[in-house]
Design a protein that fits this description.
There is one protein chain. By secondary structure, the protein is α+β, with helices and mostly antiparallel strands. It has a domain at 9-127 and 184-218. It is 23% helix and 27% strand. The chain has four helices and twelve strands; from the N terminus they run αββαβββαβββββββα. It has helices at residues 9-29, 58-63, 100-114, 209-218; strands at residues 35-39, 44-50, 67-71, 79-87, 90-97, 132-136, 143-147, 154-155, 175-176, 180-182, 186-190, 193-197. The strands form three sheets. The chain has a seven-stranded mixed sheet with strand order 1-2-11-12-5-4-3, sandwiched between helices. It has a three-stranded antiparallel sheet with strand order 7-6-10, with no helix packed on it. Helix 1 (9-29) crosses helix 3 (100-114). The radius of gyration is 17 Å and the shape is globular. The N and C termini lie far apart (45 Å).
Length: 222
């Protein structure tokens, strides 16, 4: 059963600050698609707010190569589609809303929650408020993505079924994840959709081409 996505007062204040910063940057340049840097110095988060009158669908994302996998576990108020998948061999979470206004408000709240890193270690909050987690070993050499919802923070080396808790591979690979980082670090709001992106590199705070290029892919010039 889906669990309600809880947003703390602190996180709501953070969302408001991000929105104000984005608008300020847009007013300063005349281009609302300008990049805004959020997060921290150690873990920068790249946020893009792109105006579009077009109402995008899941099929539009599929047309540019996004391959949807499964629905998210948590509930995302107002979203008609909330699932994760792959684009250019990197994970991309997709939230689709009925309007651009909902994407800018409800969608930004959701994206801020799913890219939130606690201080001072930059890991995911020690609760079930983040859908997608990448588990790193002590050296940061390996990343195992997992859906939250299993007890004792136990994960396997393949994607877990959120209902029955079985993996596509043997559960013998299961292990406890002690270094839990949000899979998504950057996000882009374009029209009525929000995409949340995994980094291009193994360092989860590096930039994402998918989040940077989504406008030209969905709205080609000409």
């Amino acid at each position: 059963m889906n669990r309600l996505l809880s947003i703390s007062k602190f996180r709501l204040v953070l969302v408001s600050a991000v929105l104000l910063g984005t608008l300020a940057a847009a007013c300063g340049t005349g281009d609302v698609s300008d990049l805004t840097i959020g997060g921290t110095d150690d873990a920068p988060k790249r946020i893009r707010m792109i105006e579009s009158a077009q109402i995008f669908t899941e099929d539009d994302m599929k047309s540019i190569g996004w391959k949807g996998q499964r629905d998210f576990i948590l509930e995302y108020p107002g979203a008609s589609v909330a699932k994760w998948g792959f684009l250019n061999q990197k994970e991309v979470g997709l939230l689709i809303y009925g309007s651009a206004e909902d994407a800018k408000t409800l969608g930004v709240t959701a994206a801020e929650g799913q890219t939130f890193r606690r201080e001072p270690d930059g890991q995911a909050p020690d609760n079930d408020s983040i859908d997608r987690i990448s588990c790193r070993d002590a050296a940061g050499a390996s990343a195992v993505k997992s859906i939250t919802g299993r007890t004792a923070k136990t994960f396997s080396a393949s994607y877990l079924d959120p209902v029955i808790g079985e993996s596509d591979e043997s559960l013998a690979q299961s292990r406890v994840c002690s270094n839990r980082f949000p899979t998504y670090n950057d996000y882009t709001v374009i029209g009525n959709i929000v995409i949340m992106c995994e980094s291009d590199d193994r360092n989860l705070t590096e930039p994402s081409t998918n989040c940077a290029k989504i406008k030209e892919w969905l709205i080609p010039a000409g």
